[in-house]
């Protein structure tokens, strides 16, 4: 055994001191290089897997957030539309109420001064004329 290497004499290999010294000089360097390459490959693979898993989770999270945002927008749009419809209906109701108040303010004194039989006869023409006048004033 020479410097940790055993050679079989039947192989016919002669080892001199220069070969052994070269091997002994290169051995720590080669070992360190191989160890570094293996560590780099393992570390690179672990980093790659971690980045891949992180990207998948980030994509999933972003998708879920976007889905919730779209659902919230749809809900807000529905509520806005309902509020708009309620506002329009309330406006129409207020206008009708104002028309009736104006109608009774104008027609009330006429109805009080006429007899029951006359009211039945003239009420239709008074209603149409008065309603037309109120609409013209409001517009």
Task: Write out key terms for the chains shown.
139 residues; 2 helices; 0% strand
Outline the secondary-structure elements.
Elements: H1 17-113, H2 116-138
Structural class: mainly alpha
- What's the tally of helices? 2
Shape: rod-shaped
| Whole-number total of structural domains | 1
Mean pLDDT: 77
What is the gyration radius calculated from CA atoms? Answer: 50 Å
Span of the ends, CA to CA = 118 Å
Main sheet summary: none
Order of helices and strands: HH
How many strand segments? 0
Fraction of residues in β-strands: under 5%
Enumerate the spans where pLDDT stays under 50 for 5 or more consecutive residues: none
The helical percent reads over 70%
Structure notes:
Helix content is 86%, strand content 0%. It is mostly helical and 139 residues long. The chain has one domain (16-138). The N and C termini lie far apart (118 Å). The mean pLDDT is 77.
Question: What's a quick, concise take on this entry?
Answer:
With 139 residues, the protein is mainly α. Helix content is 86%, strand content 0%. The termini are far apart.
């Amino acid at each position: 055994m020479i410097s940790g290497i055993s050679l079989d004499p039947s192989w016919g290999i002669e080892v001199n001191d220069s070969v052994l010294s070269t091997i002994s000089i290169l051995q720590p360097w080669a070992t360190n290089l191989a160890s570094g390459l293996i560590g780099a490959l393992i570390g690179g693979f672990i980093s790659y897997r971690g980045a891949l898993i992180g990207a998948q989770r980030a994509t999933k999270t972003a998708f879920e957030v976007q889905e919730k945002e779209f659902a919230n927008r749809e809900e807000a749009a529905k509520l806005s539309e309902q509020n708009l419809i309620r506002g329009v209906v309330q406006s129409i109701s207020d206008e009708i109420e104002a028309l009736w108040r104006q109608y009774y303010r104008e027609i009330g004194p006429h109805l009080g001064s006429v007899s029951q039989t006359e009211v039945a006869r003239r009420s239709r023409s008074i209603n149409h004329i008065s309603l037309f006048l109120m609409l013209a004033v409001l517009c």
